Fold this sequence. Notes:
Bound molecules: FE2/S2 (inorganic) cluster
Strand content: 5-15%
Largest sheet: 5 strands, mixed
Distance between the termini: 60 Å
Order of helices and strands: EEHEEEHHHHH
Amino acid sequence: xxxxxxISMTVNGTLVNAEVEPRRHLVDFLREDLHLKGPHxxxxxxxxxxxxxxxxxxxIRGCLYLAxxxxxxxxxxxxxxxxxxxxxxxxxxxxxxxxxxxGFCSSGMLLAAAELVEKQPKASREEVREWISGNYCRCTGxxxxxxxxxxxxxxRAKGQKIKPVTAHA
Length: 169
Ligand code: FES
Ligand code: FES
């Protein structure tokens, strides 16, 4: 008798039906079964934020969340949010400020930043720093990430858009 459970969820706008082991984590299901490599697996203990995804509009740690818990839910990863344009100005700003180097933390950072921009549009620089303190970056030292997010907050407050980075030949 199979111990697998049937689950069904909407992932980045597409209905997904699957059978999974009850203890399979959501991030493993997304990465290995659905080949969505945006959410990364870092500490596997809920500490680094690399595995961040959205479930029913809330950001969660995919390494602490079971795939069966997402049964019947709407799941969004950086891939889907990129396609919908939700992250566009943050992504532009991260590029402009060189706020990603290896990119390992970037999907989690972007999702955390998007939630901040939505929930605390008047956040101060200190509040930005505090907000992303649960997401670890081993490359940039955080200053450029904070700069990138602050620029988006300022631009949105003025109703402006972050201009696309121009490629140099
Ligand atoms: S891998 Fe999930 S928080 Fe680090
Ligand atoms: S850009 Fe490398 S860990 Fe953040």
